[in-house]
C-alpha cells in the first residue's frame, strides 16, 4: 500500500483550525482505506495541545471513528470502532479557561441511539460513557454542547418519541442531571442548538411553525421533573413535524423560568 508521503492523493489535505485549538481535517482516501479519527495531540511532556477531528465521506456516508494517523498511540484516539456501529458525528468543545476538551455524539447501543460523551483528563480519555443512566426505547439525536458560566458542560438534543421533544442536561457534581424536556409536549421539536450568556441558556430548535428560541434561567435547579413541563418521560422521543398544537398556536413551555420567542418561516411571512 502506498504511504501518505508517496501518494499525492493523500496529500490533498484541507485543514481548518477551529476555535479553542480544535483541528478539523478532511482527507482524500487511499484505495480501500478509510480516513476518520477523533484524537488529541499532546506535546513531548504529554500535555494537551488540541483535539483533531478527521473525517471522510465514503459511499455517501460520513466516517469519523477509525484511527488513521500512523504510529499514533491508540490511547489518544477516541471511540475506535464507532464507525462500525454507525455512531453519529462528534461535537467537540473546550471548557473555558481549562481548555479541557469534551465530546458528545449519538451512539448506537444495538437497539436505539443514545447520547454518549467523553472528556480528555489526566492524560487519557475518560469515557466513552452514556449521558443517561436509564435506557429508553427511542432514538436520541443531534446533540449540541456548550458551557455555563461556571464552565459546566450543557448538552441539548432531540428525542424521536411519538411527539419529538428537545431535552437538556447539565454536568455537575461528577454526573449528568436527569434530562429535562424544554420543548412543548404537544409540538414536535427537533434539531436544537445552544449558547450561553451569563445565567441564561439560549436554546433554539425547529417545529412545523418554524424556529423557536428559549431563554432558560440556569440559576434555577432543573432536574427531570423540573419547572418546564412536569415529569419527564424516559429518554427517547419523536414525532411528525407536520403536526402542531390543537389550535395551531405555539404553546409556551417556560413556566416562570424562561421566555419564548416563536420565529416564523419566511413562507408564512410572505402570505401576510
Query: Helix and strand string, N-terminal first?
Result: EEEEEHEEEEEEEEEEEEEH
Cα distance spanning the termini: 63 Å
Number of strands: 18
> What is the overall shape?
globular
Low-confidence stretches: 1-20, 24-32, 224-272
In short:
The protein contains 2 helices and 18 strands. With about 270 residues, the protein is mainly beta.
Descriptive account of the structure:
This protein has a domain at 131-266. The chain is mostly beta strands and 272 residues long. Mean pLDDT is 74; it is low at 1-20, 24-32 and 224-272. It is built from 2 helices and 18 strands.
List keywords for this structure.
five-stranded mixed sheet, globular, disordered C terminus, 43% strand
Present the secondary structure layout.
Blueprint: E1 13-18, E2 22-27, E3 37-42, E4 48-58, E5 61-63, H1 82-85, E6 91-94, E7 101-108, E8 113-121, E9 124-130, E10 140-147, E11 153-159, E12 165-172, E13 175-176, E14 180-181, E15 190-197, E16 200-207, E17 210-217, E18 258-264, H2 266-270
Parallel strand pairs: 2-4
Antiparallel strand pairs: 1-2, 3-4, 4-5, 6-7, 7-8, 8-9, 10-11, 11-12, 12-13, 12-14, 15-16, 16-17, 17-18
